[in-house]
Specification:
The chain is an alpha/beta fold and 222 residues long. 36% of the residues lie in helices and 18% in strands.
Length: 222
């Protein structure tokens, strides 16, 4: 008797990638640019998003899709308090957003009234790296308190991303963080990757990050 091995994981990822392409097409048809922000818990994802919104909301119409493993709306409430539409996606304990979950999120938004959709993925440095969701750019946020060895311990999350934010640089004088060692690890995984050094507390570095994001939106819509 012949035993057939079914590549379940490959089939799941193939199906996910097809939905991701459909998501991107929906965003493209509406003229909406989108970014997928990935990071570990406590890296400052929501703080970066809030600061980004502050600097862009007068010029761009923005919405946020929040991915969380539990049905809490703490981060989404911070977004809506700024007058920005936010959609809360409860993954039911799943450690990442997938394309199907993002499809639900964008279906809850009026894309024709938006320029930019920011997706805050679940706080995790492993699972989100494996699942395309259909955004135009993947952004990873690392932070000084996490340590300088993250590229060496979690390499997959840094491969193929479009840019990296190094957050909480105001803590550099107080934390033993070897910035060049960190950047060397990134360069090995993603040569030439742009890295933006930011502080949500002081605002340092945000202008460069915002200009990069604006340029990407302009190129997509041109």
């Amino acid at each position: 008797m012949t035993i057939q091995k079914v590549q379940v994981v490959e089939r799941i990822l193939d199906a996910n990638d097809q939905i991701a392409e459909q998501n991107k097409k929906k965003l493209d048809q509406a003229g909406v640019y989108s970014i997928n922000i990935m990071a570990s818990p406590g890296s400052g994802k929501t703080s970066v998003i809030l600061r980004t919104i502050e600097k862009m909301m007068g010029e761009y119409k923005i919405a946020v899709i929040e991915g969380d493993t539990a049905p809490v709306t703490i981060d989404a409430d911070k977004i809506t308090a700024m007058g920005i539409p936010a959609v809360q996606i409860n993954t039911g304990g799943q450690c990442h957003l997938d394309a199907n979950l993002l499809e639900r999120g964008i279906s809850a938004l009026n894309l024709n009234e938006l320029d930019l959709v920011i997706v805050e993925n679940v706080g995790n440095l492993i699972c989100p790296a494996s699942f395309k969701i259909g955004t135009h750019a993947n952004v990873v946020i690392s932070s000084i308190p996490e340590g300088d060895d993250k590229p060496y311990k979690y390499p997959n999350i840094y491969r193929g991303i479009d840019t990296l934010i190094l957050n909480k640089i105001d803590l550099l004088p107080y934390v033993d963080f070897r910035k060049e060692y960190f950047k060397q690890g990134i360069e090995l995984l993603n040569p030439g990757l742009s890295i933006f050094e930011l502080s949500c507390k002081t605002g340092e570095g945000f202008n460069q990050w915002i200009e990069w994001l604006k340029s990407r939106i302009s190129k997509r819509n041109s």
